[in-house]
């Protein structure tokens, strides 16, 4: 090859390289940006790519939970929810790295069986076409993949094992259980009520049923017998056998059936008192509290023990993590996530 042809080939190659760099410059810049370090904990780094995936997951959960696509732009205590989420994520990732470092120091690992359980869980998510579609759509939304999802589950299981190791000696005494019971007795209160229910199946009949409900309240205020009005008005399918009576229940036990608003109103009333009209997703209710009683300690002892045990373990683990933070070198680069 003569010099002229050689220069021509080299020139073409250089032009090709320059054109490639120009065409893919945004992609290259994105790759470089993804590899920027946004957090360092004792020398271990979190890249912007990792941070972005986790932020996308938090963002997606916030939108789904609130049913608001604009939730990230809402302001709480002078900060947008987006900024609050980003701050919270730095805390989560810092504590996560500290936990994983401690797990390594303590030689805490997952068994083969535990690893297989994670794989099985992912396979179950993909077991049918509909679930597989939701799973893949979720991964695309957060810009992740199945391998990354597996690693996140792996880390969670590992941290749970560390939690168990740190809190294994936690105990709850009988005196703590008795004290909790005596100072939180309202949690163990049960109410027995009688209910007049008007079913609302569509918007068209809502106004009419509301009018009937208001009429019933007026009749009750004039001294009309509640049981008589149950028989006359209530549209509960079981009213003919129960006579509108809902037997003793705790706060929380009827939430799935009637909703939280119903329970809130019921537990505000005194024994013998009649409510105003209560609107629920199923229709309208007017209730009267017939009686109340408190569950005995023996009946709720295990429940209280479990609750106190969790509280004490969570607090012990929190203090452990806070101590690790004090002993660690932590660098946070918030400015590198401002475009998220």
Characteristics of this structure?
about 350 residues; alpha+beta; Triger factor/SurA peptide-binding fold; Chitinase A, domain 3; four-stranded antiparallel beta sheet; three-stranded antiparallel beta sheet; about 60% helix; about 15% strand
Structure description:
The protein is of the alpha+beta class and 340 residues long. It has three domains: 1-34; 35-166 and 319-337, Porin chaperone SurA, peptide-binding domain (Triger factor/SurA peptide-binding fold, Orthogonal Bundle), CATH 1.10.4030.10; 188-294, Chitinase A, domain 3. The protein has helices at 3-23, 25-34, 48-66, 81-105, 112-125, 129-141, 146-166, 174-183, 203-221, 226-233, 239-242, 255-258, 260-268, 297-326; strands at residues 37-41, 44-47, 75-76, 79-80, 189-199, 245-250, 278-279, 283-294, 330-332. The mean pLDDT is 90. This is Foldase protein PrsA. It comes from Caldicellulosiruptor bescii (Anaerocellum thermophilum). Keywords: Coiled coil, Isomerase, Membrane, Rotamase, Transmembrane, Transmembrane helix. Residues 100-131 form a coiled coil.
